[in-house]
Every structure is written in C-alpha cells, then in structure tokens.
C-alpha cells in the first residue's frame, strides 16, 4: 500500500520544517516519490518505519476503522507496489487497450485456468497495457493458456487476447520455450517434420502399413507416396508415424472406400505447425511454404488440412 | 496460409477434414453403417475449428462435424455449452506437449464434467490434441466411462466396404 502525503502535513505531523522533509526526500533518507497534485507517495511501511524511528503513532492505519493496537503488527508484504513508469509496451498490440479494456473480468470468468499462478487473462491484458513486458515474457502462464479463445469470445471490448498470448510467447528466448515445442520447430525446419523421422523410415513404414491394410480389409491397397497428379495431398501429424502408426489407416480406408486418388509426400510431410504455438512466425511461414511446394511438385488439386 | 501465400488459392483448393468427409457422404461415395455405434454419442467442438476459425476466417465448423457424426450414429447428445461457447479440452495451444501437466489436467475438469452430464459413452473429437487429452488423460484422471474417437476414425469404423476387385 502507498501512503500519500503533502510535505507540509508531514512536516507538521513530525514537528519539523517543510524544508527538512524535502531534504530528507532529496537525500533519499525518506524514500518518497513525487505524485500527482503536489503530493508525495511512499510505501506505507516506510511511513511506519519513520513513525517508529521518531516514536510516534501513525496517524492513520491501513484499516482506519480498526485501532492500530487491535490490528497488531502489520504484516510485511514482500510484493513491491507497482510503479507505473510510462514504459511503452512492445507486446500490447494496441495502445488504446489501456482504455478499451474495461477490466470487467468477463474474460477471467470465462477462462478455465483463471487463478492458476494468481493470473488470469484480464491481468495479462492489464500487464501488457502497463508495459510489464519482462514479467509477461518470464511468466509461464501464457504457456499454460491453451489459446482456446473463450476469453476473447466473451470480451465485450474485442481485445485480441489470443494474439497477445502468441506475441508474449514469441518474445521469449527460443531456448527457454517450455517443453519440446521449440525443439520440434527447429527439427521441422531442419528435417521436415517435428520429430525428425528420416525419410526412408517414413516411406518404409507407410508402405508396410499399406500392406497390412490391404490384407485386412482393402484388397489391392498400396500406400501412394509421391504420386504425381493425385487429386488430394495429405499431410501427416508426426506423432502418428512415431507412436501410433495404425491411426493413419483410418483415413486411408476412407479414401479407399471413396475411390479417392490421394498421395503423401515423402518429404516435408509434417502437417502440424508448432510455430503457431511457440509464437514463431518465420518458422510457420517456412513450413507452410514447403507444403505449397509439395502441392506444386506433385501437381495435386486439393490439399487436405490434417486436423 | 491466407496470410503468406494468397496466390495458392487460385492454384489449388484447401479443404478441411470436414469438407472432405461431408463431400464423400453427400455424394454417396462412401456408405455408412449406423449399427456399429449404437451407444449415446457426443461431439467435442475443438477451439481451432470453431471459435478461432470463426474469428480468423469468418467461418466456423460447428455443424459439419455434427452432420458427419449423425450420419454414423443415431443417439446424438450435445455437450453444454457447445459450439462457440464450448470449453476447451485443456490441451490446446501446444499444452499437450508442455511440461505443465497438473495445470492441464486441472483445466480439463470442466470438459470432464460436461461429458459426464451428457451421458455419452462415445465422444467424437476431430482434433489430435483434444482426442489425446480426453482419451489419454481425462479418462484416467476423472474416471470416465468413455471411448474417444477421431471423427475420421468413426467414419472409417462405420464404413460399409465396397466390393471391389
Ligand atoms: S473481457 Fe475484455 S474488457 Fe473485460 S477485462 Fe477481459 S480483456 Fe478487458
Ligand atoms: S485462451 Fe487462454 S486465457 Fe483465454 S480462456 Fe483460453 S486458456 Fe484462458
């Protein structure tokens, strides 16, 4: 809590001259800052210390309908009061948010993880408006948020909360991106899929699965890898060939039943763009560009987005 | 893709899983057997196909997924709230792959409650993340009596295979 005072009042309270108070402030022995309307601000605790030092009772207490004695010792809070520095946020997408956001908290009540780590979307928006960029980038909260957009959907002021979350994520040093997401992005850029599965393994696996499917229920089925002129190009979520290869067969079975001509590329077949999650636009663009290249190379008519 | 390669839309068509499945169903290219899934079924609206798609492209896939599900099953029930107001499964935004699993499970509590209230024994999830979260995490954590399938898995399992060859 901050204590607001006029130099003359404080001087009177302590029986000293106004200049003395000013000198204390200038010398830093009285840690106060200039506030609005020719008043000064200091932490209430500092005011208390000052009183203690001169053996005086504070003339106000934080809850002034309760006597200071009944209240007992003030607990020392370890959170420094926020100072508004007028610092411009590089994260806040629109400076007018400071006014546009009504701090109504609708977003916070829509968000399933409000309260986790003491944060919620309303606070995140306000922190951005206040230029607390460092705190935001350091916080894990924007990574726990699933970018589900419930908050944004309910916001009466149309604040772009999701774009804000992505921006915060994008500002974090890439090495500090939690979990495998950034590694996946790097891997995808280097090897063409998030998990770094080599081309031969992928092709072999697909053909093997195709054979199984043919024996099982789709006689004559052969996995179409790199088929030029197929109508539909299909991308793959790398967790499937990696951990649940059989899951790829459902689509193939449908294509088979529908008599569709489709194909899978042997390279750059990743369909999941983790750049979206880590807030990395450049990476996202490269990955999308490669899919476009595949479409052109194989001369396909339709691109099926994976999920 | 809209943003970086607008020119490709003249070159080829981009379709979602819903567009393609519906096309097959409506054009009669695939036949479906409703007797395979007789249990009560519900449908989870993934954030990316619904709410966020609505905002980004002005088009949300709410009804398509339902139409496909209903083409496979008779006993269809809604989760509440649904469509634009639906709750996220808790694993979006890459959360499935991140180290904050307690938070992720906590997040999913609302989804789990919705599923129980709907009385569904089969839940259709059109998205990899949602399906993994619900199937591999929420069912265990919240003791759900539930099966989860991708929407294309549902279709594949309902297929009446044509007599080819
Ligand atoms: S719902 Fe919108 S206006 Fe209300 S607090 Fe959240 S961001 Fe601000
Ligand atoms: S997008 Fe993030 S902040 Fe918004 S409701 Fe979903 S989890 Fe909460």
The tally of domains of chain B stands at 1
What's the number of helices of chain B? 8
- CATH architectural category of chain B: 3-Layer(aba) Sandwich
> Which overall shape of chain B is indicated by the principal axes computed on the Cα atoms?
globular
Task: State the CATH class of chain B.
Answer: Alpha Beta
Tell me the structural class of chain A. mainly alpha
Q: Give the strand content of chain A.
A: 5-15%
Bound molecules: iron/sulfur cluster
What is the CA–CA distance across the termini of chain A? Answer: 50 Å
Strand count, sense and barrel status of the largest sheet of chain A are:
3 strands, antiparallel
Evaluate the radius of gyration of chain A.
Answer: 30 Å
How many individual helices of chain A? Answer: 17
Global Rg of chain B: 17 Å
Instruction: Provide the succession of SSEs of chain A.
Output: EHHEEHHHHHHHHHHHEHHEHHE
Biggest sheet character of chain B: 4 strands, parallel
Helices and strands of chain B, in N-to-C order? Answer: HEHEEHHEHHEHEHE
- Kindly give the count of domains of chain A: 3
Q: Which parts of chain A are unreliable, with pLDDT below 50 for 5 consecutive residues or more?
A: none
Number of strands of chain A: 6
């Amino acid at each position: 809590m901050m204590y607001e005072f006029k130099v003359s009042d404080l001087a009177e309270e302590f029986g000293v001259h106004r200049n003395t108070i000013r000198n204390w402030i200038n010398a830093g022995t009285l840690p106060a800052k200039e506030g609005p309307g020719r008043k000064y601000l200091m932490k209430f605790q500092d005011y208390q210390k000052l009183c203690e030092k001169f053996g005086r009772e504070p003339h106000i207490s934080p809850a002034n309908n309760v006597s200071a004695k009944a209240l007992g010792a003030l607990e020392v809070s370890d959170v420094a009061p926020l100072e508004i520095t007028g610092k411009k946020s590089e994260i806040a997408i629109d400076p007018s948010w400071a006014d546009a956001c009504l701090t109504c908290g609708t977003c916070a009540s829509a968000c399933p993880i409000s309260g986790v780590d003491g944060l919620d979307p309303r606070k995140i928006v306000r922190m951005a408006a206040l230029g607390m960029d460092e705190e935001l980038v350091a916080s894990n909260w924007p990574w726990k948020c699933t970018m589900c957009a419930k908050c944004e959907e309910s916001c009466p002021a149309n604040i772009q909360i999701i774009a804000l979350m992505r921006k915060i994520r994008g500002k974090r040093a890439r090495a500090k991106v939690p979990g495998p997401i950034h590694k996946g992005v790097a891997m995808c850029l280097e090897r063409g899929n998030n998990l770094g599965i080599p081309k031969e393994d992928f092709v072999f696996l697909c053909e093997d699965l195709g054979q199984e499917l043919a024996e099982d229920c789709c006689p004559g089925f052969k996995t179409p890898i790199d088929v030029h002129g197929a109508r539909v190009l299909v991308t793959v979520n790398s967790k499937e060939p990696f951990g649940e290869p059989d899951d790829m067969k459902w689509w193939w079975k449908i294509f088979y039943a529908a008599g569709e001509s489709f194909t899978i590329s042997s390279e750059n077949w990743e369909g999941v763009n983790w750049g979206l999650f880590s807030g990395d636009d450049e990476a996202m663009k490269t990955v999308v560009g490669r899919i476009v290249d595949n479409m052109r190379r194989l001369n396909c008519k339709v691109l099926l987005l994976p999920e | 893709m809209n943003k970086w390669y607008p020119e490709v839309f003249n070159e080829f068509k981009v379709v979602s899983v819903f567009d393609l499945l519906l096309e097959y169903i409506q054009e009669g290219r695939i036949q479906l057997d409703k007797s395979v899934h007789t249990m009560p079924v519900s449908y989870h609206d993934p954030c990316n196909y619904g709410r966020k798609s609505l905002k980004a492209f002005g088009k949300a896939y709410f009804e398509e997924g339902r139409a496909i599900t209903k083409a496979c099953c008779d006993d269809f029930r809604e989760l509440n709230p649904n469509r634009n107001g639906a709750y996220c499964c808790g694993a979006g935004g890459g959360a499935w792959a991140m180290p904050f699993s307690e938070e992720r499970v906590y997040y999913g509590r609302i989804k789990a409650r919705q599923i129980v209230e709907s009385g569904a024994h089969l839940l259709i999830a059109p998205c990899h993340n949602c399906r993994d979260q619900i199937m591999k995490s929420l069912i265990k954590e919240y003791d759900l009596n539930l099966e989860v399938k991708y929407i294309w898995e549902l279709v594949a399992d309902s297929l009446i295979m044509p007599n080819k060859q």
